[in-house]
């Protein structure tokens, strides 16, 4: 037991800096840890940058031992837009959890978040999650402790015990799938692809930076038809999609971003990017002018061996017709024979989405990483229910 622990809200520049730096101290000597960019973490807590502040609020704390050393941190947030189908109580969130291997310290962090959420009218908390979209800082790693993808949580194995001994229960599991990019695809991909190539209306092409707005518009069409309204995904405006593609442009590899078309109308997408963490790991969380220059030099001189799958979707009217196989084989013609990547990992898919899991497992059955999103019900006598299937 650690005596006289103190927890303080992050309300000064010194504590904000400590909130950012504390994990680097905790993971010192761990070769798989990659410090996130400070700017990416701070953006979550900046009302001018995070649209979630329109619907909620956030607070964060740092935990100290009796010697004044930082031994933990946590954030808590409420968001009126954070709802899962079937929820019968208001649910808040906790995230950005880091802690030494001590249950008393973890309990104090969780208790502090729970009390703040309870005072805001919440009756449950999910964690570790993000105050914002699910594509960043979501879930606890329980298998696959290799270096994290960009904006992915990383934690030591003992965190699972800290969460579960407190009383958190798995709300849903998150599966990442990995493979060597040059592995031969299953025969069924080529069979389905061959069956569709006789239709001259069908085509596929990779992105082109010179026509970025066109591909952003294609992404807008496919994403909103295939994904909006599912698993917490919200509809995106055309301007949001254009902004997203402009943000991706400096690090985009055109040949790993693919779209399928029927009579020139977009019907499927296969969106991948080089894993930025393979360059950011050398920046120690910094991205000021000097580190931006260093990043440009790294991009030019350090081979990025890993790319990551961000989004895959087929519009509903083309489900079950083999278009998923068609676009994967078309992309593989370039990726497998003309590019030099050595690792491929798909961003997580929730176990509540069996259709998407089936698509991923048809490419590779290898789960490269498993994470959990936990839920903790404040009423310990209330029946616990898992995330509903899509």
Q: How are helices and strands ordered from N to C?
A: EHHEEEHEEHEHEHHEEHHEHEHE
Q: Biggest β-sheet, characterized?
A: 13 strands, mixed
Residue-averaged pLDDT, rounded?
A: 95
The N- and C-terminal alpha carbons lie at a distance of 43 Å
Overview of the molecule:
This protein has 2 domains: 6-173 and 373-377, Aminopeptidase, CATH 3.40.630.30; 181-341, Aminopeptidase. It is globular, with a radius of gyration of 22 Å. Strands 1, 2, 3, 4, 5, 6, 7, 8, 9, 10, 11, 12 and 13 form a 13-stranded mixed β-sheet that branches. Helices cover 32% and strands 26% of the residues. It has 11 helices and 13 strands. The model has no long low-confidence stretch (mean pLDDT 95). It has 390 residues and is an alpha+beta fold. Helix 3 (103-119) links the parallel strand 4 (91-99) and strand 5. It has helices at 13-26, 38-44, 103-119, 159-166, 187-196, 212-226, 238-248, 277-280, 289-301, 323-338, 354-363; strands at 6-9, 56-64, 70-79, 91-99, 124-127, 140-143, 169-179, 202-206, 257-262, 265-274, 306-314, 343-350, 367-377.
